[in-house]
Amino acid sequence: MLFRLFLLFTLIPLAELWLLLWFSSLTSPTVTFGLVVVTGILGAWLARKQGAQAWKKIQMNLVQGQQPTGVVLDGLMILIAGAFLITPGIMTDMLGFALLIPPVRELLKVHIGEWLRKKAMLQVQSHASFHSSHAGFQDFGSTQSTVKEEDIIDVEFVRKESSETD
């Protein structure tokens, strides 16, 4: 994990710097600087606008008694997009703008939902004391319901009172 973080925080900035220098050699340093500033301002504005819309959807879902799972994931991806867009660079800008496109986020939600299901099932399999359903993961973009009656567990806990003779 530490090695991956090292690569993330060293190779990506180096690649970004190389791309900016390359783009600057094709155009001019002024155009490159302008590109970085404009994408930062435009990205921050778009992320703020879409983030406010996601926040309203979350509140509306909560008022209606629905789980805002998918909308929360949208908000998280919009937040990440904003961070990418205010970071100077060409690759991060492309990723940031891609995350601001709703169909791209929907596709990512499906993949994230599948990844979370697999992680949850692996976690459950490692703890053989209970069986898990997929409840709570339906809103991640999956169109099919995977919860079956045999997947639901009804559990009752009874607290045993201790007596003075114990």
From TrEMBL:
Transmembrane segments: 5-24, 30-47, 68-91
KW tRNA-binding (keyword) present: no
Protein name in the entry: FxsA family protein
NCBIfam families (alphabetical): PRK11463.1-2
Native source species: Gimesia benthica
One GO CC term, this protein: membrane
UniProt-listed InterPro entries: FxsA
Record keywords, A-Z: Membrane, Transmembrane, Transmembrane helix
A Pfam family assignment: FxsA
